[in-house]
């Protein structure tokens, strides 16, 4: 049976969901003006969690401090994060997706995989089906998504990251040399900055270079496990299943890579605040509590340091997790 996998990805989710709420209330559309989600609009402290396309044109970047974003764009409209709204909107678009197939895997709050393998008699035209799902989300829920279509999760995910917003893209095996291989190697799923830097040092610049590289050379550069996975992904090979029942979470985490080095504790704490808010919101939504808090820093040279602390009592309180995380960061 030939596999058919969709990846549905909300375009700039946090900002889109806030914008759709405001439009429904008769307010201006944040997506059409320089705007962002992040921190406290009154104090203008925190980091950019999501940005509009007009804000991007001013050079505003996800992960940078709001103070830096405001220097680039003094008229930037800032909206505070609303994680209850995000959870509700996430459920709404995933419920719509689930109405087409029960085999759906939640990949993150704003992404999911849909498995349509063996349904060609019901859905003979995959692109038409993807377009229908995309348009229903836009027309019924008020925000846009990209849908990637492929024979596995990797290709569907890579396809959904092509031109945005409100698009359907395919990445079938015969399209890989044309659509995937010209991309920079750092754009391949799970190839981080550190791995990309090592590959670039070996003159492996594009995904195509990686796909055609000698596997023995890659193992010498990256180690066997990473090399084999990267080489397979570069060739569009991925056998991982779409899991409709998620694996039990052993922990809850969130992280962000900033565009520029963070050099002050004040900025670092602002980043921690947003991460702690997101993590504890997810914990509460799942009815879970934690007994241990851990903080990890990755430095400019890609070296990691971690520190953790056990709590006296299990908690889902953002303030408790945040105060613990601040102490751990200071000790680091």
Helices, strands, pairings?
Blueprint: E1 5-10, H1 13-24, E2 35-37, E3 50-51, H2 53-57, H3 66-72, E4 77-79, H4 83-98, E5 104-108, E6 111-115, H5 126-141, E7 145-150, H6 153-160, E8 168-171, H7 176-180, H8 193-201, H9 207-212, H10 215-222, H11 224-234, H12 265-286, E9 290-298, E10 304-315, H13 318-331
Parallel strand pairs: 2-4, 7-8
Antiparallel strand pairs: 1-6, 1-7, 2-3, 5-6, 9-10
Helix pairs in contact: 4-5, 10-11, 12-13
Provide structural commentary.
It is a single chain. This protein has 332 residues and is of the alpha+beta class. Helix content is 42%, strand content 17%. It has 13 helices and ten strands. Helix 6 (153-160) links the parallel strand 7 and strand 8. Helix 4 runs antiparallel to helix 5 (126-141), helix 10 crosses helix 11 (224-234) and helix 12 (265-286) runs antiparallel to helix 13. The longest helix has 22 residues, at 265-286. The N and C termini lie far apart (52 Å).
């Amino acid at each position: 049976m030939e596999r058919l996998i969709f990846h549905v990805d909300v375009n700039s989710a946090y900002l889109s969901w806030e914008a759709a709420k405001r439009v429904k209330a008769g307010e201006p559309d944040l997506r059409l003006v320089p705007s962002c989600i992040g921190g406290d609009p009154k104090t203008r402290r925190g980091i950019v969690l999501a940005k509009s396309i007009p804000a991007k044109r001013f050079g505003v970047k996800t992960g940078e401090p709001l103070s830096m974003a405001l220097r680039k764009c003094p008229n930037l409209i800032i909206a505070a994060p609303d994680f209850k709204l995000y959870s509700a909107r996430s459920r709404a678009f995933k419920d719509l997706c689930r109405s087409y197939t029960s085999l759906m895997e939640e990949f993150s709050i704003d992404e999911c995989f849909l498995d349509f393998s063996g349904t060609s008699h019901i859905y003979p035209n995959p692109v038409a089906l993807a377009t229908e799902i995309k348009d229903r989300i836009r027309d019924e829920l008020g925000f846009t998504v990209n849908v990637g279509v492929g024979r596995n999760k990797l290709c569907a995910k890579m396809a959904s990251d092509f031109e945005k917003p409100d698009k359907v893209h395919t990445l079938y095996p015969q399209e890989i040399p044309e659509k995937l291989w010209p991309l920079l190697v750092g754009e391949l799923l799970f190839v981080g900055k550190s791995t990309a830097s090592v590959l670039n040092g070996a003159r492996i610049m594009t995904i195509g270079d990686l796909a055609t590289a000698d596997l023995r050379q890659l193992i010498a550069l990256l180690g066997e496990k990473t090399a084999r996975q990267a080489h397979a992904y570069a060739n569009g090979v991925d056998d991982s299943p779409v899991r409709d029942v998620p694996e039990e979470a052993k922990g809850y985490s969130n992280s962000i890579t900033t565009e520029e080095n963070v050099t002050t504790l004040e900025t670092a704490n602002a980043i921690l605040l947003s991460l702690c808010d997101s993590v504890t919101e997810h914990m509460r939504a799942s009815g879970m509590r934690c007994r241990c808090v851990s903080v990890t820093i990755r430095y400019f040279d890609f070296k990691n340091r971690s520190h953790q602390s056990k709590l006296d009592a299990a908690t889902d309180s953002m303030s408790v997790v945040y105060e613990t995380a601040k102490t751990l960061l200071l000790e680091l």
